[in-house]
Specification:
The chain is α+β, with helices and mostly antiparallel strands. The chain is built from five helices and 15 strands.
Length: 226
Amino acid sequence: MENMIPPPHLQLPRDTCVRLISRTDADMDRRDVTVYDITHKNKRYFIDGAYAQMPCLADFILSPYMAEICRATIGPNAFLFKNQFVVKCAEVGMNFSWHQDSGNIPEPHKPYISCWCALDDANRSNGIIYILPASRAGGSGLRPHQRLADTNDLVDYDGDDPGDPIEMAAGGIAIFSSRTLHRSGANTTGGIRRIYLAQYSPHAMPAKVGTTRQAISFLHNGKICR
């Protein structure tokens, strides 16, 4: 969906993202590491639990336009499940392998939605996502994932279908099921590519120790719980 995010709302997550990258770098320096899970310092960042660290993001992820998306996809009841910044650094931003978001959740669950919110223009040169429709992926069921030793990526597809590229201007949102196969390309441009990923579930999946999962009631009978 193009032009879904009001321009005044773009600056808040952009500024928050920069602050959280600095925090992440400082934390990795303290640990004396350059790789932490799927984050690779100065290449790509996956910063989980941004809303818990920066409650001001509620104006974005608990907004009327996100409510509209939830009603149209998962129905009148929705919970904020996870949220994270996904950043590809200029010139060295790494690929991210084929996967389903549900592949990160070990227990049985209903599909949830992922809202891939473009904070910068996203194109084939700076790391857009590619979607593989279920009709070409062999169905929409949950697939087994394997972790790659060199990048820590979870991977569930090794075919030769490149997928469909999703290009959009800043302010657009790509919305897809947690069981949709997708990947993202490298950033070969001179500018950073920032995405805010907000995920909503149709039922509460309780927070789990050691994760950034949440179960924040967002919609109840179609109405925003704020």
